[in-house]
Structure formats: structure tokens, C-alpha cells
């Protein structure tokens, strides 16, 4: 296994991790922005007001995007395991 192969595997793993985490991060970011604008407009400074909606939206996002996330991770792992004989030899 050459250093180039290791770097390429690491790059692919980071790409897959970012692709899978992206929808959850985006949902949390948008929810946090909306809640913070609401809190600034109404001058309500309650910590649970920002935490609970983020958790709910991230759960909903995971339910909607979950099958795609699982398929993406499974495909990456399958490709990784299938390429083991070529990496060793």
C-alpha cells in the first residue's frame, strides 16, 4: 500500500463523512438562524427555545435523509472492502 493510496482513502472517507453530515449541519444551521432572529425580534432569551427546535429538526432531517445517508456509507464501505485485495497485492 503506497502513501498515495492511503491519502486517497483518507480523502474519500472525509468526503463521505462531509456528505453524510451535511444535511444535518445545514438543518441545524438554518434552524439556529431562524430561532436567533426570532429571539432577537422578541427579546426572549431562553436557552431551551434554541435547543429543542434544533433537536426536532435534526431528527426530522435524519428520518427524511436517513436512507440516503445509510446507502452512501454502505456503498463506501462496500467499495473499501472490495478494494482490499488490490491494495495488498
SSE sequence, one letter per element: HHH
Radius of gyration: 19 Å
How many individual β-strands? 0
What proportion strand? under 5%
Relative helix content: over 70%
Class per helix and strand makeup: mainly alpha
Give the overall shape, derived from the CA principal axes.
Answer: elongated
Number of contiguous helices: 3
Please outline the major beta sheet.
none
Number of domains: 1
How much is the average pLDDT? 92
Unreliable segments (pLDDT under 50, ≥5 consecutive)? none
The end-to-end span amounts to 8 Å
Précis, in short:
The protein is an all-alpha fold. It has helices at 3-42, 47-82, 84-88.
Describe the structure.
The protein contains 3 helices and no strands. The protein is mainly alpha-helical and 89 residues long. It has helices at 3-42, 47-82, 84-88. It has one domain (3-82). The radius of gyration is 19 Å and the shape is elongated. Keywords: Bacterial flagellum, Cell membrane, Cell projection, Cilium, Flagellum, Membrane, Transmembrane, Transmembrane helix. It is a multi-pass membrane protein. Belongs to the FliQ/MopD/SpaQ family. Role in flagellar biosynthesis. It comes from Pseudothauera lacus.
Quickly list its features.
single chain, 89 residues, mainly alpha, 3 helices, elongated
Fold blueprint:
Layout: H1 3-42, H2 47-82, H3 84-88
Helix pairs in contact: 1-2
